[in-house]
Amino acid sequence: MANLSTAAAGRRLAALAAAPLLFGLATPLAAQAAAVAVESTSVSPSTIGAGEEALQKVTLTEPAPAGGTVVELRDLTEFGDPNYAWSTGRKVTVPEGRRTVAFPIRVESEDRTTVTRLQASANGTAAETAITVEPPNWSDQAVTGFWVKQQYGQAFAVTGTTVTGTVHITAPAPVGGLAVDLRNDPVWNTTAYAAPYVVVPAGATSATFPIRATADKEPRYVGMTADLGNNVLTSSLIGVPAQFSVGQVREIRNTPGYWPNHGTVGLGDIWHPFGAVIRLASDTPGVTVPSELRLSSSELGRTFPVEVDPSVPIGTKVKITASWVLGPSPVTTEITIQD
Predict the structure, then answer these.
(1) Which residues contact 295 (CB under 8 A, 6 or more apart)?
(2) What keywords are assigned to this protein (predicted)?
(3) Is residue 1 part of a domain?
(4) Which terminus of the chain has a lower count of CB atoms within 10 Å, N or C?
């Protein structure tokens, strides 16, 4: 529990004493509002399994005044816990006339036992508590399936549209449900936007969640992960612009050992009931792409291999052009060969 300092208390008393002289009336309501402080906060249970729900309680020193008292909430981890922020909205209101409020919380899962400190503050006062999260045993509970939009093949989505993600877990979720952590990889990639977790309902072994796709002038790839701290599964999404476009999936390298080099074409929201024939060309010797792609009427895009000969110098700029037969004008992207 954190209390008001003597100096702060003195300033508040002085202000209250002066108020009737300045405004010609007593201000008991203002005095009450100013005096309300956070007395304590606690979590029950204080130790949970990964993904489980807990209940946090905040107690004030006296009943909240008219309109209630807004209490700010935050975790004290180095980079912030997105699950806690999402589940609480970073604040809670103690209703008028009450001293306490309780609310459900979620915190992220790790591959080891973790302790997360939580802080509740209002009117310059604060109190702290902590919650311990233990990872589940691999044989008892884990994420066993994760995909975006479709179980097999690369998922594409036109910018501004929403697709569905799906997760499966080993055993039925407990009372309160089980929150599976969802993250973009890398975390700063905004191609896919989803909540930081999805709750598998109590008694269920799967859940779905919405993902909103974003792209600029070229297709954008993002990896996504789902886990309970002990078994990280991956999926991915390529967001494509509304118009015909071509781009790269990841960095294009001239040395093996990373990931395969791939480019991608996006058909956007252009109607193609009979499919699409896309012709590809590279302007650089030693960098080759397939001469042609044939997409069905249900496809929004397709990835393709980019072969780079080791003799192509690092830093070489390569233009890849995609031409849609009987479609929109050709489009070009420029890639830089990396080590």
Answers:
(1) 267, 272, 275, 276, 277, 278, 301, 302
(2) Signal
(3) no
(4) C
Cβ–Cβ under 8 Å, residues 263 and 241 = no
Task: Give the three-class secondary structure for 15.
Answer: helix
Give the CA angle between residues 231, 234, 240 to the nearest 5°: 165
Residue range 69-76: mean pLDDT, rounded: 97
Instruction: Choose the final residue of a domain: 116, 134, 152.
Output: 134
Give the CATH number, domain containing residue 334.
2.60.40.3170
Confirm if 33 and 60 have CB atoms less than 8 A apart: no
pLDDT at 32: 44
The pTM of this model reads 0.85
294-328 pLDDT tens trace: 999 999 999 999 999 999 999 999 999 999 999 99
Looking at every residue in the chain, the average pLDDT score rounds to: 90
Rounded distance, CA 305 to CA 180, Å? 33
Q: What is the pLDDT of residues 175-191, one digit of tens each?
A: 999 999 999 998 889 99
User: How many domains is the chain built from?
Assistant: 3
pLDDT digit string (tens) for 37-62? 999 999 999 999 999 999 999 999 99
Domain's final residue, options 101, 134, 167: 134
Residue 260: inside a domain: yes
Are 250 and 236 in the same domain? Answer: no
Q: Which domain holds residue 282?
A: 245-338
Q: Judge whether 223 lies within some domain.
A: yes
Q: SS3 of 11, please?
A: helix
Spatial neighbors of 263 by CB under 8 A, at least 6 apart, are 246, 247, 248, 249, 252, 280, 289, 303, 304, 305, 306, 320, 333, 335
